[in-house]
Here is the input.
Amino acid sequence: MVSKAVFYHAGCEVCNAAEKQVASALDPQRYNVEIVHLGQSKDRLEEAERYGVKSVPALVIDGQPFHINHGADLSQLR
Amino acid sequence: MVSKAVFYHAGCEVCNAAEKQVASALDPQRYNVEIVHLGQSKDRLEEAERYGVKSVPALVIDGQPFHINHGADLSQLR
Here is the structure.
């Protein structure tokens, strides 16, 4: 079964490193990773907040938020 | 080619969630993930610091540190 994962970012340098090294390192046989740029898709901000995302980059796996290093707070993207 | 990844933790709840959901989600065809408990293996603290690890849980992929949420600072483990 393939689980859903969402990687939220804002195009920052810290975000890019996390996308390249962590989000894309997930097992494609088990995870379908959607990449969401919250600076460009502000309509997804509420969804990210519902998952408990406070800052980007963040990876939500099976509904659980994992903040990876720190690029920007979500409040800065509004 | 299989890259090396190291997941540093200290047995904390935040660490356990990150181990279960992130470290074990990496693609086994591309990453060989070593799990290191820094509370039990204090001789690995310096190595973690050399990678730039400041807190646990942290995942080092291809030599780059990614702090995942925040369980404990490394200084608390000495």
In short: The first strand of chain B starts at residue 3 and ends at 9. The mean pLDDT of chain B is 97.
